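Teaching soon. Got one?

===
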Amino acid sequence: MNKLITNILIGISVLLILFAIGESIGRIGDLQLAKVNPSIFEPNSHDLHYAENAAIMYIHVIAGMIFLLTGSYQLIPYLRRKYIHIHRLIGKLFLLISFIVSISAISIAVLIPFGDILETISNLIFGTYILYATIKGYTTIRAKKVIEHSHWVRRIFFLSLSIATIRLIMITGIVINGLSIKEVMGVSFLLGFFLHFVVIELWINKQKKIRLNRASI
C-alpha cells in the first residue's frame, strides 16, 4: 500500500514538473513579447505588470526551471545510490537555487504583487516556508541527519510543485467561473500551497511510522 501511494505521488509529481516547466517557458516568452510588442496584451494585464519588473521575474523563473531539473534528479533513488558524488554536487546546487527561488518569491510578493492582499500573504508564507525548509535541508545534512535531510528536501520540492497546481486552480476559476486572474490568484495560491503541504506531511508521517515499526521488530 505504501509503495502504491509513493508511486502515485511520483506520477503526480512528474506531471506537475512537466506542466511547471512548460509554464516557465511560456512565462519567459510572454515577458519577452510584452517588452517587444506590449499592445497585444490587455491594459493592466499580469503580463505587462511583470514585464515592467522583468529582471526579478527572469531570475525567479529561470532559477525555478533549474530548481525543477536538479530536484528531479535528486529524487531518483537509483541515481542517488550509483552516483553519490554527483548527487552531493547537484544537492548543493539544488539548495542554492532553492534559496534564490524563495528569496525572489518573497521579493515579488512584497515589491510587485499583482493580485489582492491574499496573494501577497500566501506568497509570503510560501516563500518564507521554502526558505526555512532550505536552511533546514542544509543544516540537517551538515549534521549528518540524512533521513531528516531527505524529508526537508522532499518538502521543498513537493511544496514548490504547488505552483503547477496553483496554475490549474487559476485556469479552472477563470474558465468555469469567469473570474479574472487578479480575482483567482490569491485563493489559488492559498489552496495550492495548503493542498501540497498536507499531502507531503501525511506522506512523511507515514514514512516515519513505517521506520518505527521496522525498528521495533
Q: What stands out?
A: The CA atoms of residues 162 and 192 lie 5 Å apart.
